[in-house]
Design a protein that fits this description.
The complex is a heterotrimer. Chain A has 14 helices and no strands. By secondary structure, chain A is mostly helical. Chain A is flat, with a radius of gyration of 24 Å. Chain B has helices at about 15-25, 25-45, 45-50, 80-115, 120-135, 135-145, 150-180, 180-190, 195-230, 240-250, 255-285. In chain B, helix 2 crosses helix 11 (about 255-285). Chain B is elongated. The two termini of chain B are about 15 Å apart. By secondary structure, chain C is an alpha+beta fold. Helix content of chain C is about 30%, strand content about 25%. Chain C has helices at about 10, 55-65, 115-125, 160-165, 175-180, 230-240, 255-260, 290-300, 300-310, 335-345, 365-375, 390-400, 420-430, 450-460, 465-480; strands spanning about 35-40, 70, 80, 85-90, 95-100, 140-145, 150-155, 195-200, 205-210, 225-230, 245-250, 265-280, 315, 355-360, 380-385, 410-415, 485-495, 500, 505, 510, 515. In chain C, strands 1, 8, 9, 10, 11, 12, 13, 14, 15, 16 and 17 form an 11-stranded mixed sheet that branches. Chain C has a 4-stranded antiparallel sheet with strand order 4-5-7-6, covered by helices on one side. The two termini of chain C are about 20 Å apart. Classes of the chains: A mainly alpha, B mainly alpha, C alpha+beta. At the A-C interface, helix 2, helix 3, helix 5, helix 7 and helix 12 of A face helix 6 and helix 12 of C.
């Protein structure tokens, strides 16, 4: 097992290397001259040239690449072309808002998903099951920006209960967290339901039931606790998935997170920031995939041996 | 898990067995019927739509739902109902074609990867990792930026999202199928690779693929809407639903019907695809994550 | 607000004296500043070093903390700020500024002629790689005559120098702070303005009232918070829910939401943004003036205002909007599809033609392009609308090296003269020297008479002579139908009714340093 993990960790390095190469190539493949975009809408050609030189984009491509790789290898990400701040600072500032938003979204997803999942699982095949699943699936069927705008209209404009966005108070987290969370809730509910159904047929649950324990206790202590193990795994995976920040939700709720940063950086062709964001997301993703593979290997030893 | 008692008269073909189970999923059946109706409406657009979806009428802009225009008119005075009916063609095409392309590529990669194993597997799976790791929306921006705007390029952009999903899924089931007795047996009697994969492994992966196709079509329609939201979607005056929704949002609170109806169209269609997918999954007894 | 005499007309007369008493310096009722003013804006700020800022928003934000020698009032008329008066020589090569005395930067260092010299020469020096270097590219050096008199000596005559000095990018920073923070000065702005920098996170800028501000009685509010909210609907919601007291811009379709709300009101004024459609005059069929005139007759400017700006726009009747200097209205191309068809037929396009229309991919731009598509379809011109992402637009239009390489046929865009002056409204868009990649003449319009007039306007500082040159240029451009002239959108901002004296300049920039709550 240990050797397997080691092998997979070793496998991460080439992936990350490929991603860094890919990131470098990708940003330069995007049409559009960063100097032109950064110099602004009424810059003269002279201004554009000044920007180009200050970004080092007048150098040949290979020199830019060597500089980028040596910097990256040393953990140095350079400066944002758009705001002149160090890239690490730019990303650092944005990471935490996205992280907390993700956390709140997961709380929403877990509450909604587990409750719906358990009800559907217990009442399998009944109308509650069907209603629950339709409800859960509704969450991933909404265009997120529309849902977000509708929620703002209802809770901020009409009811004055919650702020329209921004992360300055805890109340600002509720709406964006919910909007992001409902999409995950559907997955969680499906997963909880099937885990529940499976666990419910296990011997120890049947034993508990035969012992004459009240049904509610059977459900909430015996079944749920065991059904939660895969659900928790699932949660972790989804959490990683959301860490990239949602462009749409961060835009609608004026959230200063990684998703919006990505759009802004692409709009201005802020190469250093785009590259760094790609690397960060890839790193998160590769770690999560590693987790999945390890889990697979635990479940199915044949894969480990191949 | 399915412990059906098998009596002489209950022996059914796999398809029959599937149908028997699927029919009992009332929700999924309902979703299927809704989808058939939506597809029909889109197909019959020239006959069903009361107006030309692109014809402006500056004297009747932003009119609410009324007898002449059941769902009202937009900021150019175009009939929203007609635009939704015609737009169904575009939105559904985006869903179907992008998933067909992305799914097709993913299935091939997954089969090759799972069956051959070794360095090919590592290579493909690492590529899938990279593709997965790459922020999807950024890829889409890249595709649309490089290829230019337009619905075809939106389809490509959305298709890219699906490739790694299918590749991973198919690789997983291929790995499992490779170990089955009949595949091992076929191999030992010297059936060549390509026919073996096509005849014995591919069909085994299909149930999962079918379920995912249904689920991914919904996702694809939503992704296209997100692209419209960031200004990279279908080209005007195309009545793609996501584009209608995205442009209509400037009128939120002023003329809500501009967003309400396209929003409902997307919601119902995507919901139906998702419920159908769930029903298929149950009927096919697939344990998918 | 009465304006002290510092018009361009006063320029040649020698000295334009300026009374030190400004209208808003209401000393008798000066109360200590109170309240927090939250402003919802569209995008994140990029930098607070105006010399390195190319967006109106960042410049407007900097205006809270920094001041220039000259500034703008809400109608974009020049007003004196750190300079009390100035004089220019006949040749428009030397401009002397007499500075306000007793003003200190927020870090306590004095504002004086040395500070002016340091700031201007920093910007003018290409080695400093500041994005607005070109604004002062004509500056040779600044002479310190005495502590409160600075003379700008130019390399060549530049008649538009005074409007340039009023440009927000030439607001002054403390030289001590520039030396201290180096290239990070944009994150630590230190100026002389009514507010002192407090903090700036990615989307929120906070500034606090400057107790030692030289204009007694200002500012009125204790703190200003600038929060960016890119989604229009959500930004309006900030105002409706009371989270913000001022939002800019309000998209035209949403104006009635703000206007109908009993707690909020609209602030609407003509902008200096000209909406136009350029045509590549080097390509067929746009090389034929009749085709370009036909397209002008094919567009109903009133419908443009109604459909694209929900009525919050006025027709564009020259190559520059009325609020830019030396504006001269031209006889309109009347909306007349029959005449358009006749002109097209005369030019050999009886059955119309097909063309591709490029533009940006914002919702407003896409709406405008669809409108044009519909209008042109009515006269048989089939238009393929292509909204392009910013970077693509840049590479396909602005960085094209040779006119013959340009694939552009038609382009929809808008332009505002950031100095409020006719030179920057016309030269970048119509001069032969302004072909991409130098400037923005994307239609490759070239008329030697227009070139002569534009150059003439630069070589004198005499307003009367400049007036004549620019009126000549405008008449020729309009007659040549270099553009399809569309309209001028209004600046649209929403305010809480408790808020007063917060403005949006005609260029869209914020002017909120004198804002009052309650």
């Amino acid at each position: 097992m240990f050797a397997f993990i080691l092998r997979r960790v070793g496998g991460m390095i080439p992936v990350l290397f490929c991603v860094s190469l890919f990131a470098f190539g990708f940003v330069r493949l995007l049409p559009g001259d960063p100097a032109r975009l950064l110099a602004g809408p009424d810059a003269t050609q002279q201004d554009v040239q000044i920007v180009r030189e200050s970004l080092g984009l007048d150098k040949p491509l290979w020199q830019q690449y060597v500089r980028y790789m040596t910097q990256t290898a040393q953990g140095e990400l350079g400066k944002s072309a758009r705001t002149d701040e160090p890239v690490a600072t730019v990303i650092g500032e944005r990471f935490m808002p996205t992280f907390w938003l993700t956390l709140v979204a997961m709380v929403w997803a877990t509450i909604l998903g587990v409750v719906i999942g358990v009800i559907s699982g217990v009442r399998r095949g009944k109308w509650q099951d069907q209603t629950g699943m339709v409800l859960a699936v509704s969450g991933i069927s909404f265009p997120a920006f529309w849902l977000g705008l509708l929620l703002i209209d209802l809770f901020s404009v009409r009811l004055h209960w919650l702020p329209t966005g921004g992360n300055e108070t805890w109340r600002g987290y509720i709406l964006p967290g919910f909007t992001l969370g409902v999409a995950v809730a559907a997955v969680m509910a499906r997963f909880t339901r099937s885990a529940f159904v499976e666990v419910a047929s296990e011997d120890y649950v049947r034993t508990a039931r035969m012992k004459g324990l009240p049904e509610r206790r059977v459900v909430w202590t015996h079944t749920l606790r065991n059904a939660l193990i895969p659900v928790i795994t699932m949660t972790g995976l989804q959490f990683g998935f959301l860490l990239g920040g949602s462009i749409v939700i961060e835009t609608v709720f004026a959230w200063p997170g990684l998703g919006r940063l990505l759009v802004d950086s692409v709009n201005y062709r802020d190469y250093p920031v785009i590259q760094a964001e790609i690397l960060l997301f890839s790193f998160e993703f590769v770690l999560i995939n590693l987790g999945v593979d390890v889990l697979y290997a635990i479940v199915n030893p044949e894969i480990r041996l191949r | 898990m399915s412990a059906t008692t098998v009596g002489p008269e209950t022996i059914r073909s796999p398809l029959g067995e599937f149908w028997r189970r699927f029919r009992r999923k009332r929700v999924a059946m309902g979703a299927g019927i809704v989808l058939v109706l939506i597809v029909l409406a889109a197909a019959l657009a020239p006959w069903l739509a009361p107006y030309d979806p692109a014809a402006p009428d500056y004297n009747n802009v932003l009119a609410g739902p009324a007898a002449a225009h059941w769902l009202g008119t937009d900021s150019y005075g175009r009939d929203i109902l007609s635009r939704i009916i015609w737009g169904g063609r575009i939105s559904l095409s985006v869903g179907f074609i992008s998933v067909a392309l992305g799914g097709g590529a993913g299935v091939i990669l997954g089969l090759v990867s799972g069956y051959l194993g070794g360095w090919v597997d590592s290579l493909i799976m690492r590529l899938a990792d990279v593709l997965f790791a790459f922020p999807g929306i950024l890829l889409a921006i890249g595709v649309v930026a490089v290829l230019g705007p337009g619905i075809t390029n939106v389809i490509y952009a959305v298709a890219v999202f699906s490739v790694p999903v299918f590749a991973r899924l198919v690789r997983g089931s291929t790995l499992a199928l490779k170990q089955t007795v009949y595949v091992q047996a076929s191999r030992s009697i010297g059936v060549r690779r390509v026919p073996l994969v096509l005849r014995h492994i591919l069909p085994g992966t299909l149930p999962g693929v079918i379920v995912y196709v249904s689920l991914r079509i919904g996702t694809a329609i939503l992704t296209a809407a997100s692209l419209s939201f960031i200004g990279l979607g279908a080209q005007p005056p195309s009545p793609e639903w996501g584009a209608m929704l995205a442009y209509g949002r400037s009128y939120l609170g002023v003329a809500d019907h501009l967003t309400l109806f396209p929003g409902i169209a997307i919601f119902i269609t995507v919901l139906a695809f998702n419920l159908l997918g769930d029903g298929l999954r149950d009927a096919l007894d697939q344990k998918l994550r | 607000m009465p304006n002290p005499e510092i018009s361009r007309r006063g320029l040649l007369a020698g000295t334009a004296a300026i009374g030190a008493t400004l209208a808003f310096a209401d000393l008798a009722h000066a109360a200590s500043p109170s309240g927090i003013l939250t402003v919802g804006v569209q995008a994140n700020l990029l930098t607070l070093d105006p010399a390195n800022a190319n967006d109106t928003l960042s410049q407007g934000a900097a205006r809270l903390m920094l001041e220039g020698l000259l500034g703008f009032d809400k109608d974009m008329k020049q007003i004196p700020l750190l300079a009390e008066k100035y004089d220019a020589n006949e040749a428009a090569t030397e401009f002397t500024f007499h500075l306000r005395q007793g003003v200190k930067f927020h870090d306590g260092t004095p504002f004086d002629a040395e500070a002016v010299k340091f700031n201007f020469e920093r910007i003018a020096n290409p080695a400093n790689r500041l994005k607005r270097q070109s604004l002062l590219a004509m500056l040779d050096h600044v002479e310190v005559i005495d502590a409160h008199t600075a003379k700008c000596v130019l390399k060549n005559p530049f008649g538009a120098f005074v409007p340039t000095i009023a440009h927000p990018s030439l607001q002054l920073l403390s030289p001590a702070a520039i030396k201290k923070y180096g290239d990070q000065i944009g994150r630590h702005p230190v100026g002389t303005g009514p507010f002192v920098f407090t903090s700036w996170t990615p989307d929120t800028l906070k500034v606090t009232a400057n107790p030692d501000y030289w204009q007694k009685g200002l500012p009125h509010v204790k703190q200003v918070v600038l929060r960016s909210n890119p989604e229009a609907g959500a930004r309006i919601a900030m105002l409706q829910s009371g989270e913000a007291q001022f939002v800019n811009p309000v998209p035209a379709p949403m104006v009635q939401l703000v206007a109908n709300n009993p707690k909020t009101a609209m602030l609407e004024a003509p902008s200096i943004f000209a909406n136009y459609m350029a045509m590549n005059v080097m390509k067929k069929p746009f090389d034929d003036v009749r085709v370009r005139q036909a397209l002008n007759h094919a567009v109903d400017q009133k419908a443009f205002a109604k459909i694209v700006y929900s009525g919050h726009a006025t027709p564009l009747l020259s190559a520059e909007p009325p609020h830019v200097t030396f504006y001269k209205e031209q006889p309109a191309y009347a909306y007349d599809p029959a005449k358009a068809k006749a002109l097209l037929a005369e030019a050999g396009h009886k059955d119309g033609f097909s063309a591709v229309l490029w533009g940006g991919n914002s919702t407003e731009t896409i709406q405008a392009m669809q409108f044009l598509q519909q209008q042109f379809a009515a006269v048989g011109v089939k238009v393929d609308v292509r909204p392009l992402e910013g970077g693509v637009l840049a590479s396909k239009i602005w960085t094209v090296q040779k006119p013959e390489d340009s694939e552009l046929e038609m382009y929809y865009g808008r332009w505002s003269s950031s100095t409020g002056d006719a030179d920057w409204a016309l030269r970048p868009l119509f001069a032969t020297s302004a072909f991409p990649p130098h400037l923005y003449n994307v239609g490759y319009y070239s008329n030697p008479d227009v070139d002569k007039a534009l150059q003439g306007g630069l070589e004198t500082a005499d307003p009367a002579k400049r007036q004549a040159f620019y009126e000549d240029a405008q008449a020729r451009i309009y007659k040549d139908a270099a553009w399809v002239f569309l309209g001028i959108g209004n600046t649209l901002a929403g305010r809480d009714k408790k808020l007063s004296d917060a403005w949006v300049l005609p260029d869209g920039g914020l002017l909120i340093d004198a804002a009052k709550l309650g």
